[in-house]
Amino acid sequence: EFRVAHGGGMIGLSLIAIYSNNPLVYQLVGWGWIGAAVVRLLAYLPDRPKITADYLVFLMTEIVLGVFLLW
Predict the structure, then answer these.
(1) Do the beta carbons of residue 69 and residue 33 sit within 8 Å?
(2) 7-38 b/e with 16+ CB inside 10 Å = b?
(3) Could you give the CA distance from residue 54 to residue 21 in angstroms, rounded to a whole number?
(4) How far, in Å, CA of 68 to CA of 17, rounded?
(5) What is the pLDDT of residues 4-39, one digit of tens each?
(6) pTM (2 decimals)?
């Protein structure tokens, strides 16, 4: 359920951004990725997950995609 709602939402937004080719839509998706990175960092405080390579790769991917789309 969670993967469908959130992962599917990002895929849907990304496809609409490509289809519409509107800079504002690209910014919307970029802010979504930046928001995901911020929430990942904030969730670290109460959850204290192990810092693994996967955690860092996902965090860096979210930040890079977000910045790239906002540029």
Answers:
(1) yes
(2) eeeeeebbeebeeeeeeebbeebbebbbebbe
(3) 31
(4) 14
(5) 667 777 788 888 888 999 999 999 889 988 998 998
(6) 0.77
